[in-house]
Amino acid sequence: MKISTLCSCALLAFGLSALANASPKADIRQLEQEFNAAYAANDLDKYFGYYADDAILWFPEGRTDIPSYKKEWTEYIKGGAQIQSGTVSDMHVRFSPQGDTAIASYLFRVKTMAADKKVTDEVFQETDVWFKVAGGWKITHVHYAQPLPAAHK
Predict the structure, then answer these.
(1) Does a structural domain hold residue 34?
(2) Could you tell me which residue, 134 or 57, shows the higher pLDDT?
(3) What is the pLDDT of residues 60-89, one digit of tens each?
(4) CA-CA distance, 56 to 1, in Å (whole number)?
(5) From 141's CA, which of 3, 12, 57, 151 has a CA 20 to 30 Å away?
């Protein structure tokens, strides 16, 4: 009887521990899904709502800040361009020991139609750093880059 009670307690503790660790990861995965869906839907207000005001962004064109990016991206979309689709794959999520920082890295396939109707279909490597703040999780850093071509041997 004692052994079965101890085993039950151990399994319960293990299950609760797994749930505690799965929940923050599931939260970040859900936020990433919503964040990228807003981007793909050209929903600028919702998309920019995921960023911290002081976020730092590294794009293929260089480093920028939220006010500059928001102005540039809004003009681009309002000028007739649009994201046609965005698909996330190969997501990895890691947390700081304190649990207040999450790093999500993934591949992001994005189809974009420019104002001149030219369509591009590209894959990017993206890393988003999320900080847990009073209002919830916010993106504080993004690194968005095209993969380098494979080295020839």
Answers:
(1) yes
(2) 57
(3) 999 999 999 999 999 999 999 999 999 999
(4) 58
(5) 151
Q: Which residue has the tokens 């307690």?
A: 9
- The pLDDT confidence band at residue 17, using thresholds 50, 70 and 90, is very low
The reply to whether 77 falls in a domain is yes
CATH, residue 133: 3.10.450.50
Residue recorded with tokens 């399994």: 11
| Of 144, 148, 109, residue with least CA distance to 127 | 144
| Residue 151: inside a domain | no
Please give the Cα distance from 4 to 102 (Å, whole number).
38
Does residue 121 lie in a domain region? yes
Alpha helices in 41-125 (DSSP H): 44-48, 66-78
Q: How many CB atoms lie within 10 A of CB 151?
A: 5
Structural domain boundaries, residue 141? 12-145
Question: Which residue(s) pair with 94 in the sheet?
Answer: 103
According to DSSP, the residues that pair with 82 across neighbouring strands are 113
Is pTM beyond 0.85? Reply is: no
Give the model's confidence band at 148: pLDDT under 50 very low, under 70 low, under 90 confident, else very high: confident
